[in-house]
Design a protein that fits this description.
Layout lengths: L15 E9 L5 E10 L2 E6 L7 E7 L44 E3 L5 E9 L5 E8 L18 E2 L10 E4 L4 E3 L5 E4 L1 E3 L5 E6 L2 E2 L7 E4 L8 E9 L2 E4 L7 E4 L3 E4 L35 E2 L18 E4 L2 E4 L10 E3 L18 E6 L4 E6 L4 E10 L8 E8 L10 E9 L9 E4 L10 E3 L3 E7 L5 E12 L6 E6 L2 E6 L2 E5 L8 E2 L7 E2 L8 E5 L1
Parallel strand pairs: 10-18
Antiparallel strand pairs: 1-6, 1-8, 2-5, 2-7, 3-4, 3-6, 9-12, 11-15, 13-14, 13-16, 16-17, 16-18, 19-32, 20-25, 21-22, 23-24, 24-32, 25-31, 26-29, 26-30, 26-32, 27-28, 27-31, 33-34, 34-37, 35-36, 35-38
């Protein structure tokens, strides 16, 4: 935007049309005179108020004039500085064709905005267009002087009908309890009709096309970062960033991903207690191939996962320190200052690290004492940019011995993530089954999870949120034999089998705890199931 009512300062183009628009804001109340100069023909309009619809023509350049020739020299031979008759039609106080309601007297009020427009057209040769002003009682401006229409006496005019929407109230993130109704809203201004599209974790939400997004009976599927696009015929505006528009459900079991196992499958007991304390694994060394795997077991690897939090790794009994280079090159980058990455729902963790530059094929083991149950699991992760389907991860349950090399695992679920916008700008992504549903994993005391980069692109790992989706009721069974009679006390359903690995287990019909085994029974094996 120019802060001067002059189109240019040199002869630049041929065969074009120019327009200067804005507001004149009188510094004092009084009578004003406007003068114009243009090459070729030009016209000046002033509105009786701020509305362009009320503009009136108050002056014109009927032929041409050189740049900043505000005053006529009377020349009428097309060779001087003004190529028309010597009439002073280029000034509002002498223009005979004025459309101003009060004729050639233009009385304006200090501080009000008046729409001001200069039009000019150029054929060939020199080109310019501009206007200036003075109080009627002041001396005329000298030819060649810059326009006085600058600084605080002018304002920018923008036609709101040409602008994209303007968001005046962004959505706000919140915590919620399972089952609540959760709403996010946006307020936008636009001179044209608008449409809305909401996104969760950078992916469009089907049917979410109003100014308010309402989620009834919200559960783990609602967890994530949100933004909304507001679109008119003039463009689209988004409510970025989205880290501060996060829906976070209470009740998560949290694993900080820098807190992977150490010393061949060892874990810290306090890491299974919520609210989670910070820095529980500080200085504890993991064993490559058992507790974690790097694509390159080198201290120069950017994914070496450690600064002051983790000392390094052990090679044949010798501790190999991680490099103490700048934080950006370390595996566990301190992101404590990013409050959005410290909020875990029920608590805010005091300090936060992330596993940086997690490369293809790399993984980390996490042994915890979970309250027995089934869990949905979400990964807090980040990657620069917004590329679609940028990275892939799998969540695995370690079914083998987590203290040994090459422990067997079972894949629980996987995820595909878009770029999250920036490093440390986490999205909360759920692990899913192949059909797109949320994966579930049954966990209990001493369960070990493995987080693996199963794709080809790097990304940062920050934390896991595990939400219980139902409690596993572990059945109980005990027995006693008195006087040759065996009595089974149990919970759940009692089942029996006559020989192992033969026919399937069958329910014992009519059994109620405590159950006495009849002497005539052929069944030799009993169990209880939930």
């Amino acid at each position: 935007f120019k802060n001067l009512y002059e189109a240019n300062t040199a002869d630049e183009y041929d065969n074009y049309f120019g327009q200067l628009v804005g507001y004149f804001i009188p510094p004092v109340t009084g009578d004003y005179v406007f003068l114009m100069s243009s090459d070729d023909h030009g016209e000046t309009y002033l509105s009786t108020d701020a509305d362009p619809a009320n503009k009136k023509k108050i002056a014109e350049e009927s032929g041409w004039s050189n740049r900043r020739i505000w005053l006529s020299d009377g020349v009428n031979d097309n060779t001087g500085s003004r190529g028309s008759e010597g009439a002073w039609v280029n000034r509002s106080d002498q223009y005979g064709g004025t459309e101003w309601p009060d004729g050639n007297t233009i009385h304006l009020i200090a501080g009000n905005r008046y729409y001001l427009e200069v039009l000019f057209k150029e054929g060939g040769g020199g080109d310019n267009g501009g206007a200036t002003y003075k109080l009627a009682s002041a001396a005329d401006p000298a030819n060649g002087t810059p326009s006085a229409l600058t600084g605080n006496v002018v304002g920018t005019y923008v036609d709101p009908r040409t602008l994209p929407p303007l968001i005046t109230q962004r959505p706000v993130g919140k915590h919620f309890a399972k089952g609540e109704t959760v709403s996010l809203s946006v307020v936008a201004e636009s001179a044209s009709p608008v449409t809305y599209q909401w996104y969760q974790n950078k992916r469009a939400i089907a049917g979410a096309t109003s100014s308010t997004l309402t989620i009834a009976n919200a559960d783990v599927k609602a967890v994530g970062d949100y933004y909304v696009d507001v679109t008119s015929k003039n463009g689209t505006v988004s409510s970025f960033p989205d880290d501060d528009v996060r829906l976070l459900m209470n009740g998560a079991f949290v694993i900080e991903l820098e807190d992977f196992n150490y010393g061949s499958g060892q874990t810290v007991a306090a890491a299974s207690t919520m609210p989670l304390a910070p820095n529980l694994y500080q200085g504890k060394d993991g064993i490559p191939g058992i507790d974690f795997r790097l694509a390159n077991q080198s201290t120069t690897d950017a994914a070496a996962n450690g600064n002051s939090l983790r000392n390094g790794w052990i090679n044949s009994g010798t501790t190999v320190d991680f490099p103490t280079t700048s934080a950006d090159l370390l595996g566990n980058v301190d992101v404590t200052g990013n409050d959005g990455d410290r909020d875990r729902g029920d608590f805010t963790i005091a300090s936060n690290y992330k596993v940086g530059w997690n490369g293809s094929g790399e993984w980390y083991n996490y042994t915890r004492n979970f309250p027995a149950g089934n869990y949905n699991v979400l990964l807090g992760t980040s990657a620069d940019g917004r590329a679609v389907d940028l990275f892939n991860d799998t969540l695995e349950l370690v079914t083998g011995d987590p203290t040994k090399v090459n422990a067997a695992t079972t894949v629980i679920g996987s995820l595909v993530g878009n770029g999250t916008g920036a490093w440390s700008s986490n999205d909360l992504l759920p692990y899913r089954n192949s059909d797109g549903s949320f994966a579930q994993v049954a966990l209990g005391t001493g369960s070990t999870l493995r987080v693996r980069n199963s794709g080809s692109n790097d990304h940062d790992l920050d934390y896991l949120l595990l939400y219980p989706v139902g409690t596993i009721t572990v059945p109980t069974l005990s027995y006693s034999t008195v006087g040759g009679v065996t009595t089974i006390t149990y919970t759940g359903t009692l089942q029996s089998l006559d020989t192992l690995n033969s026919t399937p287990w069958t329910d014992v019909q009519g059994a109620v705890s405590p159950y006495q085994i009849p002497a005539s029974t052929v069944q030799k094996y009993f169990r209880s199931r939930d």
